[in-house]
């Protein structure tokens, strides 16, 4: 049996407890060795609940553990930079929850330091690892829907009553563009294989939620006259869908970013003038696939499908979206 990657978890967030930790434990290449919280009692309770051998009452203690090879960072967004850098300096590989940082400059610095210390960095945008997205890319490349003319995407939920949620704290990197907008934006970049040129975004900044963007709607301009129109929000009815519109047909992706089980609806629906068909590629846990891919990169040197620079490029788009929403202007994206 091949060796298991030894993981430490920096934080006890819901996404860590409900998704990422179980996924690492279900994977064939990973083991969760330790978890840390600023409260030793909380770390001990979660460790007992999830059958994790070690618990620590500080993040410093966890990254000082010599047996831990990689860390997952699900901390509030404003803490990602500090703990990515500190983990890298301790020789730990880093899987950092999205968004990787508060802006492109921060993410670029994080990635550069990881390179300097010889550790792998990846942003935890888990949906991208599901094979249905490779299938979408195949359909586009085949020409079945013709030339892509536009992409539409959305990701919304309603958690507005949870006023103490860190996603509603401006200084902690709250807001719907950071939390949900990264999904349709990264997906459009992935499907098109291009970087956008400019953005125009309108947003609802809520005084009830520390002034963060609770809803945003935007236009992302790509080369060749192609655009992504999207909306994201944390104060709206829930949905997560994308549509890729071509000259000869279109692809629908219902529940495009969600967790999946055997009761899922069609993952891909293709419409052309002659046919409409449904495809189900596989019922796969994207979190498990993400853990497996990261472990293979660390243990075997297998190249990651999404290079760290992809993170910086996505953050440049988010930066421009926020600037556009605040200034009510079209923003041209500065290239590296």
Describe this entry's structure for a reader.
The structure is a single chain. This protein is α/β, with parallel strands linked by helices and 336 residues long. It has two domains: 120 residues, Rossmann fold; 173 residues, Dihydrodipicolinate Reductase, domain 2, CATH 3.30.360.10. 35% of the residues lie in helices and 28% in strands. The protein contains nine helices and 15 strands. The strands form two sheets. A nine-stranded mixed β-sheet has the order 14-13-12-11-7-10-9-8-15. Strands 3-2-1-4-5-6 form a six-stranded parallel β-sheet, with helices on both faces. α1 links the parallel β1 and β2. α1 crosses α8. The longest helix is centred in the C-terminal third of the chain and has 20 residues. 46% of the residues are buried. Pfam families: GFO_IDH_MocA, GFO_IDH_MocA_C3. It comes from Paenibacillus amylolyticus. Keywords: Oxidoreductase.
Helix content: 25-40%
Please compute the radius of gyration using only Cα atoms.
20 Å
Q: What is the strand content?
A: 25-35%
Total strands = 15
CATH superfamily of the largest domain: Dihydrodipicolinate Reductase, domain 2
Described by the principal axes of the CA atoms, the overall outline is globular
What do we call the CATH topology of the largest domain? Answer: Dihydrodipicolinate Reductase, domain 2
Largest pleated sheet: 9 strands, mixed
Q: How many separate domains?
A: 2
Give the integer mean of the pLDDT values: 96
Family: Belongs to the Gfo/Idh/MocA family.
GO molecular function, one term: nucleotide binding
Protein name: Dehydrogenase
Pfam families: GFO_IDH_MocA (PF01408), GFO_IDH_MocA_C3 (PF22725)
